[in-house]
Amino acid sequence: MKRSILCAWCLFVSYLAPGQLSTTFTLNGEVVDHIKNKVAAGDAFLLNPADSSVVKSTFINNGKFTLATIVKGTYILRISSVERMPVFQSITMNRDTAVTIVLPEKSITLKEVTVSGAQRIFTIRDGNINMAIENTILSEVPSTIDLLAKLPGIQVSGDRQTINVVGKSDALLYIGNQRASINDINSLTVKDIKSIEIINNPSAKYEAEGRVVILITKKVSKREGYRVDISQTFSFKRRYNNYARINMSFKKKKVEWKANAEYNQLKVWESNSYDFNINNGALRSGYSILSVEKSPQITIGTGFFYQINTEDYFSLTANTRRNVTTYPNVATTTFFDGSSNTEVGTVTDNKKRRFYSSATANYSKRLQKSKALIFAGAQYSDFVDNLYTDVYNDFNNTGSVYGLISDQQYRVHAFSGRMDYEKSLKENIKLESGLSYATAKARALSLVDDLIAPVRTNSKYNYKENTYAAFAQLSGHTPKLGYSLGLRFEQNNVQGGFENKPLLVTRNNSYLFPRLSLDITLDSNKNLTFNYARSIKRPNFSNLTQISVYLNPFTVFSRNINLQPALIDDISINLRVKDKFIRLFYYSLRNTPYLSTQYNSSQKLLTIIDKNYEREYGFNLNLTVPVRYKTWNSTNVLIGNIGYIRDADAILNTSKPSLYGYSGNQFSLKNDYKILLSAWFVTKRFTGLYERAPLSAVDIGFSKTFFKSLNCTLNFNDIFRTLNSRQQFINGSVFTDGRYFEDIREISVNIRYFFGEFSKSAYRNRNVDDNADRYR
Predict the structure, then answer these.
(1) Which whole number is the average pLDDT over 495-523?
(2) Is 133:196 a contact under the CB 8 Å cutoff?
């Protein structure tokens, strides 16, 4: 199998390599300082000389930049970098051009300077959205997770473990060129972030789950040295939460070292209620449950980077996250069996231990003769999730009885490795290809003592998954057309079953994931983009076990060991006019996973469980309009969506359109005061299966920096407490009406102090574990 994948990869690469390539208008630039050293980072803008509007823009990385698909004409090139004077240069584009720009030092030292104006925060390129974070109030948000929640179209789940993009479900996370997990995001300091890009059309080099990618670009400065960043956040929700973090960085010549530590003392309030109507009302069940979690969390991370020469490097990184959660669930339940009512008060004492650790090694080498880039990486991850439960029931006020003991243990080990090859065939043509391998082994132990029956259940479940993958991608551009053509192949082998018994799950699947992107330039202010992509959504590893959560004697939340991956096809058309764009998007999913219910009449037990529905498809229309006026920056998004779910076991209703709206507003005032005001809403949603209640939220934040190194930020989130959600659906003979009461409304005070100076950071490290987001 491995040999066949390698051969197919080589054949595909050789097939894609073209023989004759056309000439295009591309501007390549080198940016140096007054002594000819490369400028590490900055911005390059191509401006319209008539009104100074931005035609194209890009980042300067290690002294290099490229602006492609430039229409014939005369422009103004603006080059800028922190701590250097900007340079403006007139340039005529009637052929491919290469320029060298010298950025002079700022020769005048000013005692004080006040700048009033609107920084360009929002840019659109090829249908993707880029948000500037550096030097905006967004850089003062307490954590990276909170920062993501404030961006257009991004929604963070209540447990802060899942990040969704409206209309596209889960998102892949990247920090630079590295795949990142939620644990990595939680370990990243917001002050280190330069920008965040929402890539709606990721290429084949990203994992097959890359339906949409959130790419975080870190800041790069210039000088050696050190930096220490200490922050403390006081958060007041329904309970008090405390976050403390320290980040340290040190660089000397070719060696760079980073370390971070975080201790969070959390109290998470959760509540939900469900009403179930079974067999057209013959049986009825309902419960309400309240839980307050005490969850101290410790995160430690470190990284080592060695710059071998200008382009070659070696790096190691490791991080670990540990939290022990104790939480009593207090539930009130009623059950009507057709003739009588039973009322039960249930107290469930839970203790959960979670431990995640990961280590990564990277090596990057530039081949001088062929000018190709080779990257090799390996990653090992370990995830432990143990749950111990004691259950006490009080039936009809007859007294509390010790009813059940449960000890459930789950652990997964994963290893992955990859090798990528990148080569510019000509100035405007690039070939990328790669091979990867991932393996994961999971073991789940479950011991349940039902003290009333009495019955003891003891089981051991083993799971193993291997994935072999290869990809190749060709991208380039002509004066009027940019293109990207890619194909990813994956062979996925899965085995799962209880110990000493026949296998329950055996799957050997081969997948092809084609991707195509065409970017048509209409004029300097307009372009049209067409995209097609096939991707996959795999279940989290914790869903592939039999671990269950006891709610009450009649209701249990369970995992589904038979849950299969969903296959997704996406087609979109985007029109950009200056800094505004409109996108029409069609999606289709097979085996889409959603919540369902199963009722066992002999046990009088209702199980809430994820299942695969046959098909989901829909359309959405996205309009994005940024507004800038003096010190006010506003990003506004409006998305109309209609979705359909089809399944033989589900009772379907009529699908209806829904509307999502977002407005993010930033104000930079005098004396370094900053204000952030954001609001979003989503109307009632009818998917044919689900009926979901409308949601909305309003957040506001104030920030002020004192003495250049002490920042204070005050945030008010979910001011009107409007994020309580509700959904209804019918599956089989069960009508379900569920309500979720969120603990989002928050007043937080963040104090951040930093000292030292650390710059010219070359640090790079890529997580190569394709399954990073499945450890939940």
Answers:
(1) 89
(2) yes
H or E element: which one contains 529? strand 526-537
Q: What percentage of the chain carries pLDDT values higher than 70?
A: 86
Q: Write phi, then psi, for 5 (nearest 5 degrees).
A: -65, -45
Element (H, E) at 5: helix 2-16
Work out whether the CA dihedral 179, 182, 186, 191 comes out positive or negative: positive
Strands 283-307 and 313-336: antiparallel
Place of tokens 């089989």: 732
pLDDT of 274 strictly over 80 = yes
Phi-psi region of 422 (alpha: psi -120 to 50; beta: other; left: phi over 0): beta
CB 680 within 8 Å of CB 662: yes
> 624-654: string of b/e by CB count within 10 Å (b at 16+)?
bebebeebebbbbbebbbbbbbebeebeeee
**CA-CA distance, 393 to 626, in Å (whole number)?**
56
CB 173 within 8 A of CB 206: no
Question: What are the angstrom distances between the C-alpha of 651 and each of 560, 590, 607, 658, 728?
Answer: 21, 18, 18, 20, 11
Residue 245 CB-density burial (10 A; 0-12 exposed, 13-18 middle, 19+ buried): buried
d(CA 277, CA 599): 11
User: pLDDT tens, 412-432?
Assistant: 999 989 899 999 888 788 899
Q: 751-766 as b/e, with b when 16 or more CB fall inside 10 Å?
A: ebebeeebbebbbbbb
Cis ω for the linkage preceding 454 (within 30 of 0): yes
- The string over 388-399, giving b where at least 16 C-beta atoms fall within 10 Å of a residue's C-beta and e elsewhere, is bbbbbbbbeeee
CA distance 549 to 551: 6
Nearest Cα neighbor of 775 from 300, 156, 320 is 320
Residue pLDDT, tens place only, 731-746: 878 888 989 888 888 8
Count Cβ atoms below 10 Å from residue 716 Cβ, excluding itself: 15
Spatial separation of the C-alpha atoms in residues 157 and 56, rounded to whole Å:
35
Length of the chain: 776
CB 609 within 8 A of CB 560: yes
Q: How far apart are CA 296 and CA 321, in angstroms?
A: 11
CB 626 within 8 A of CB 132: no
Element (H, E) at 149: helix 144-149
Q: What is the pLDDT of residues 332-365, one digit of tens each?
A: 999 888 788 889 999 999 999 999 898 989 899 9
Residue with the two structure tokens 């959130």: 214
Query: What is 304-366 written as a DSSP string?
Result: EEEE-SSS-EEEEEEEEEEEEEEEEEEEEEEEE-SS-EEEEEEEEEEEEEEEEEEEEEEEEEE
Q: Which residue has the tokens 């972030």?
A: 193
- CA separation for the pair 197, 209 (Å, rounded): 17
Closest by alpha carbon to 690, among 728, 732, 650?
728
Taking the CA atoms of residue 85, residue 86, residue 92 and residue 95 in that order, the dihedral angle to the nearest 10 degrees is 90
Q: Which of the 8 DSSP states describes residue 402? A: E
Is the distance from CB of 278 to CB of 733 less than 8 angstroms? yes
The answer to which of 97-106, 478-487, 572-581, 753-762 has the lowest mean pLDDT is 753-762
